[in-house]
Amino acid sequence: MALRLRLEGVTYSYPLPGKDEAVAVTAVSLAVEPGDVLCLAGSNGSGKSTLAQVCTGLLAPSSGALYYGDERIEGRSALREFRRKVGLLFQNPEDQLFADTVEKDIAFGPHNHGLRGDALKARIQESAAMVGLPLDELGSRSPFSLSEGQKRRAALAGVLALDPEVLVLDEPFIGLDFEGRQSLASALTSYRAERGASIIIVTHELSHVWSLATTFGLLSEGRLVRFETREELLAGETDLAALGMQLPQWGSLARELLRAGVSLEDPADPRALAGAMAKRREATDGR
Amino acid sequence: MVGRDITIGQYLAAPTLLHRVDPRLKLGMVVIATVLVFLYPGWPLLVFALTLVALLAICRLPLIHVLKALRSVWVIVFVTFLLQLFLTPGVVIWHWGFLSITDSGLSNGIIFSARVVLLVVLLSALTMTTPPLRLADGLESVLRPLSRLRVPIARITTIVSITLMFIPNILDQSSKLVRAQMARGADFESANVLRRVKDVIPVLVPLFVKVFHDADDLAVAMDARAYGGGKGRTRLYPLKIHPTEALLSLAFVAVAIGILFIPLT
Q1: Is the pLDDT of residue B231 over 70?
Q2: Are A213 and A268 part of one and the same domain?
Q3: Do A83 and B10 touch (CB under 8 A)?
Q4: Nearest-CB residue to A18 (from B12, B179, B186)
């Protein structure tokens, strides 16, 4: 079961040649409760990937603090210990895959954490099953010979095999077809439900996480501009276009229906929207 | 983190005098200085080192950045020093077991390791103040006479410039890969050297895959933009030597050669 992950006034700067540095994230404070799915959304260069790596302890904040539960994570050993509880899926699966077979690649993380023998085999099977990767067919193949979607699944299986309490995913839906996106979303939903894990998803495309996320953190130029729920986004107080983003089509439709006074049970469910539209049409035609 | 401190081969954009000097002059100065570094005996080598540092300081090149380049070669410098120190015959000044240090060993150790340091500083100063494409243009211009002997100069200089451009890319990529594997429990900070060496493999394999992919993509992209081996290619910014630059370069070479004749022992 995950604990509360909290950033307090975190700034991160990348060193540049000479004495300069590039500030990627400025004074960000956020909290992710156990079981939350936080979407960190922003346009290109808004600092979301850097923030994701700060959340995993891979980049130590230049200033500010990272807390997990009540413990402040600072110093090498604390960061190393914290990283054991967090899994990070990189945007490009080829940044993670390296072993000569898919099975060995999935085993890399849990093996590093000391898992051996049957327990290791069981963990590999379980993680591959969770992402829908047929190990009997692909387990002995080179990960580099897989299709893009399969590579993404193999990389995710390698991360889930660590049994992380907090899962951080950097643009996980990019490059996946509809089926791939659906299967990834359902894998994340079941992992969250089974393990009580917190999930942080970094994306520039709100439509990919519209129904999955419980909270949306909107980033612009390295700053966390606002936190909003789906309902608050639908209320339209924030100008998403100014942040280089837009509501997904289903979201825009839900917003129009809400503005027209239609009550929606679940604005993220396309079937609920279609039902509400049909009812409204019937009511209009009947008049 | 891997790559952060490796500055050899990296260009540093800055408004210094050396940045403005024509790449052909800089190449000439580096070649002559390299030859002289091997010709200087003891004290002239120190005088040249001081002259070089003064020149870089006058040109306002960040010396810390130049010295950072040495971090990646300190092992070579150290091994050079030790080999000369213990293996040069001469008058023994210290002895312990089978190890003995001679007066010639000590002076040779200092001179040879100083030569390696100076070569690194010279090359870093060249790559730090010359964008890879300008350097390739300069190299092509200097080597052009060889094309009469059917040496494919244009292709060679393209290879050199692409290699130089790829260095920062590879360093960035390796940093990213290190973080990706650290997220999966790889330990690059472990005191256990064997563990650290073992954990380098998960970085090298994807790094090579990525570099080969990138190289392949680049070749296709160059082909798609009608790259034909560089023959008959013109320059957007033709190289031009300003008289002041030529005079300054000549002055540097004259001073460097003059040091050779200073009657120091």
Answers
A1: no
A2: no
A3: no
A4: B12
